[in-house]
Write a structure and sequence with these properties.
Distance between the termini of chain A: 45 Å
CATH architecture of chain A: Orthogonal Bundle
Number of domains of chain A: 1
Largest interface: A-B, 59 and 59 residues
Oligomer: homodimer
InterPro entries (chains A, B): HTH_MarR-typ, WH-like_DNA-bd_sf, WH_DNA-bd_sf
Protein name (chains A, B): Winged helix-turn-helix transcriptional regulator
CATH class of chain A: Mainly Alpha
Strand content of chain A: 5-15%
Helix content of chain A: 55-70%
GO molecular function (chains A, B): DNA binding; DNA-binding transcription factor activity
Shape of chain A: globular
Pfam families (chains A, B): MarR (PF01047)
Largest sheet of chain A: 3 strands, antiparallel
Keywords (chains A, B): DNA-binding, Transcription, Transcription regulation
Strand order of the largest sheet of chain A: 1-3-2
CATH superfamily of chain A: Winged helix-like DNA-binding domain superfamily/Winged helix DNA-binding domain
CATH topology of chain A: Arc Repressor Mutant, subunit A
Radius of gyration of chain A: 20 Å
Number of strands of chain A: 3
Chain lengths: 166, 166
DNA sequence: CCAAATTATATGAATTTTCATACTTATTGC
DNA sequence: GCAATAAGTATGAAAATTCATATAATTTGG
């Protein structure tokens, strides 16, 4: 058995309860908390979070099709269709039918869209650096690999990640 | 300069891009992926995710007020008000005005609500155990502490956590 | 080559969610 | 003790989101 010191003092006030040490909650809460500031910044550019995600992915790889963009951007497909239409109306992206497979619609950044995407990606990089720097000890360094490992395990085909052609 | 082997082979296909290694994305995607299965299970009980979160918190500490429940359950206040009303209509919770501070509304589990909450918490524990077991190496063990550290840093007052009285 | 199944996107309609703000009760500073 | 401010909850109305399904284009199997 392990010595008791490894346990966070079983009743630091009364035992803490289930949720506050529950992995799925920690993930959701950490995601929210970590993103709050930057998402507020995104909104100052007149974008909602899903729109920023779309721009960021297109920045990495332009001309993605709707379904794929939906998967990796964590947005339901019919919602993304409408979001893309709005973004097109605002001149951020354009849609082009895929000539090989005419069911597909490919989404491309406009110059305006690319400009915003590049600015925000730059800002995001800076924000991430600052955030990781705040985590003393190994925690900051360990976090990304641990998350990546979790994702890889849960989504072996990279449906949710940047896989070239999943 | 570092030897190149420490770098993830700069063009494993073309360089991967920004998003797929961006902390805020990894957090959001990992949260989604990790929760997908269990959230589906929650829905089979006729509950939406926010409702499950409310039940889980009340399971830990009954009689929370709306504002606080909203913060820790990651739900916007006016939305939670309506969700609580719906849950009350379905007999999962009851609202009681706080007699000390008559602005406050305290939410309590009904027997029915508590029964569902307990069942789901049990299921959640089992699911979490299974999930962590899948992560070989130290990743599983390191993940929760790293997330907790991130949260603690971003939310020192425990507004988002189970603090007895934040 | 054709019918059946599958994939990609779009859309109607109901429901949810958001945002701003109203209302009520408490707290603070004078 | 009172006016001003803050805190807690609720609510109308606009907007977003979901769900099921339609439509169109491809792929598969025989």
């Amino acid at each position: 058995m392990q010595p008791p010191e490894t346990v966070p003092s079983e009743d630091e006030t009364q035992g803490k309860g289930f949720v506050s040490d529950y992995l799925l909650y920690l993930l959701a809460a950490a995601s929210e908390a970590a993103s709050a500031q930057f998402h507020a910044h995104v909104r100052t550019h007149g974008l909602r979070v899903p729109e920023w995600r779309v721009l960021a992915w297109l920045h990495d790889r332009d001309g993605a099709m709707i379904t794929r963009l939906a998967r990796i951007s964590l947005i339901e497909q019919s919602r993304l269709t409408r979001i893309i239409i709005q973004m097109e109306e605002r001149g951020l992206v354009i849609r082009k039918g895929d000539t090989r497979d005419r069911r597909r619609v490919r989404v491309h950044l406009t110059d305006k869209g690319r400009q915003i995407a590049e600015q925000l990606v730059t800002d995001a990089r800076a924000h991430e650096t600052a955030l990781l720097a705040q985590l003393e000890g190994g925690d900051g360094a360990r976090l990304k690999p641990a998350l990546a490992a979790l994702l890889a395990r849960l989504d072996p085909d990279g449906q949710t990640r940047g896989e070239p052609d999943a």
